[in-house]
Every structure is written in C-alpha cells, then in structure tokens.
Amino acid sequence: MGFLSKLFGKKKQAATPEQAPSSPAPAPAPAAAPAAPAPAAAPVDRAPPAAPVHHEPAHAPPPPAAPAKALAPAPPPAAAPAEAAEGAPKKAAAVPWMTAEQYSAKQPGPGGTGAGAAPATVVVGKVEVNQESEFFQGFVKFTVHVNNKMNVPASRTQVVLDFNEDILRLQRIEPHNFRSTGSRVLIGDIKAGDSKQLTYYLDPQICTETLVDGVVQYRTPDGKPQAITMKPLKAEVVCPLFFTKEVASSALLKRLVETELKVRDSKVYKPKLDMGVRHEKVYDIAKSAVSAHDVKEVREFKGYNPFHAECWFYGETKVKGYKIVIRAAVREQDNFVEFFAASTEAKAVTGLLAELNRQLTEDLESKLPGAHVDQVLDEQFKQKVQAAAQIARLAKEDVEAGETDI
C-alpha cells in the first residue's frame, strides 16, 4: 500500500504540470466579462471588482477608480426606451423651455446662431413727393418726382394722378417702359436713397382752371401699405384775347412762322360724316371757329376734286402783346381737320387750341347733327399734316389752276 500510494502520488504530481498549460490563469477573465453590466448598476463602492475592464478597446482610457464615478450619470440612456415608447406621456420637467435671452441667441445676426426670422428693421426717413407743371407744345406737362429718403426700399410703388377728364385728356406718359392703366403707373421698387420721375402730358380740351393732384402708394419691408397725397396744383388754361392787326400780310406770316415764332402746336381730327355731308361744310365750321376771335384773315387756299383748303390768320394778344399765327385746314383725301397755332408763348398756344377744340365740337353738334370728329394723338401723323401746309406759298401771288386764293 505504501508503495502504491507513493506510486500514484507521483503520477498526480506529474499530471498537474501537464494540465496547467491547457487552462491558463487569464482564461477565466472573459467569462466574467458578460457579468460586467451588473456591477454598473451597483453602488460606486463596488467599483474595484471591475478591474478586468483593462481588456476593453484601446480608445477607452484606462483610468482607475475615479473615472468610474464620472460615468455614474449614464442612467439617462437607460431611460430612453421609456421615453421612446409610443403613447408614453412626457414629464413636464423634460420640456425644453427657453428664456428670451436663449431664444434671441438662436436667431441669425450679430450674437445669434439660429435660423429664425431676421429681426425687425427700424425705418428711418420718409418718402417725399414733389410735382410741377408747365405748358409744353400745347400740353399741360405734369411731372411727379418720388424720392425715397428712407433707409429701406419702397416696394411696389405706384403713382395715381387725379384730374378732370372733361377738361384735360391724357395723351401720353413718359418714360414708356413703366406699366400703366390710365393714369395709374406702376414704378416698382425704389432703392433707399434713390428717386424716380414720371411725366404726364395732358391735352386741354377747353379754356378753364382745374386742379391736378393724386397719390403715391408703396409698401415698407414689413408689407404694410403706405400712401402719400400730392399737393394739388392748378392747371390754368387761359384763352388769349386778340386785337386786329390791320397791317398783317402773308409775307409777315411766312417770316414769323419760319423764323420768329418757335412755340407751335396743332390739334388734328379725323371726321366721321354721314352720307351726303361734304368736307367743305366741315371746313366752313372750322374756319368760323377761328374767325370768332378778333383776328385777321390773311390768306386762303382752296382746291376741289378732292376738296382741300386752308386759311391763315394773324392776331396779337391784348394783355401781353404776343404775336400769334393760326391756320385752319381740311383735306378730303387724307380725311383730316387741323388747327395750327404758332407764337412766342406756350400758354397762348395751349389756350387758343383748347378753345378752338371746344368751339369745333359744339358747332358740329349744332350745325351738322350726326357728324363728329375724333382727335388724333399720333405725333407722326400730326407732323405729316403740318408738312402738307402751304407755308412756302404764303408770300407768292400766283395761284395754281383749280385753286382759289383770297
């Protein structure tokens, strides 16, 4: 027995070193790794058993016991599933309330990093509107200046002119690139410190006084509409009074029209006549409208088949002594009626043409019922009519066949 005990004891001692390599001492450490989360929920005092954490990836720092306390606030991720559950009510304490300072800090601009709306701009200055009027080539020329003296643009700016359309007729608006409907013109946006200008050409229909005003509308950057009322301006169309100048001659008229009287204009009409009404009747009415004033008839040209005629007059105004030359003309072939006036003063030309327009309209209604005229506003056609006048023949004494020279 003692021999057997010694023999088997030696074999056990020999087997022990052979088994040691198959189960090394560090091997049990990985088996303990799955149990590591349990100590995480345990109190901080049990941190020392977590020493095997040394085998985690290299990016996690290997602090001793102190970092374990820093990881203690990790429980919020554990609460995430409860918040993500559908239908789970949120606690009031979890609502991210912000103070006014925090909200302002999130806005764009100086000191802010957020993506909210831009802060409101303080508007400094105002929009100013100035207007002026003058007589120009037989028209009342009304100019509107819009000056944006604000620090922000005036958007969707438009000008609306108000006038009596029975006295003044809108002929055209300059510049032509603005969109317009009647006297309403859309200027568009006016930059800060910039200005824009509109010019209305108003054609007087009668001699009288009338007021012209209007309004300028625009919007500020916040979208609020603004309006500025124009100061009313008086448009005074005065009919000149004449006295007869007995020494007037056709040579004098030709010299005045060609050299001295630079202010000139005309009103041209397209007559619409009933069957049987001849252009000669229209000419007689146009001629009598001029003869109603205290002016001298100087020379007349007439022709037939087709009918054409023009009569030249001369006069001087009583108050200022302005010289003025007048022509009444009718041409059947081109179907037009014309009043022409030339002087040194625009006001005299404008007033006279307005009065002749009124007289012709009234006389046609009373003497030729059913006949009326439409005023021509095409400047090229008016120039063509003026070019057909017999100015060059005023100083000549010869008369062509078929014409009557009076």
Description:
The protein has 406 residues and is α+β, with helices and mostly antiparallel strands. Among the domains are: 127-236, Sandwich (Immunoglobulin-like), CATH 2.60.40.10; 242-405, TATA-Binding Protein, CATH 3.30.310.10. It is built from 10 helices and 18 strands. It has helices spanning 2-22, 28-32, 37-41, 66-70, 75-84, 100-105, 250-260, 279-291, 346-367, 379-387, and strands spanning 127-136, 139-148, 154-162, 168-174, 179-181, 184-190, 195-204, 209-219, 225-229, 233-236, 242-243, 263-272, 296-303, 308-317, 323-331, 336-343, 372-376, 403-405. Strands 11, 12, 13, 14, 15, 16, 17 and 18 form an 8-stranded antiparallel beta sheet that branches. Strands 3, 5, 6, 8, 9 and 10 form a 6-stranded antiparallel beta sheet that branches. Strands 1-2-7-4 form a 4-stranded antiparallel beta sheet. A hairpin with a 4-residue loop joins strand 13 (296-303) and strand 14. The radius of gyration is 51 Å and the shape is elongated.
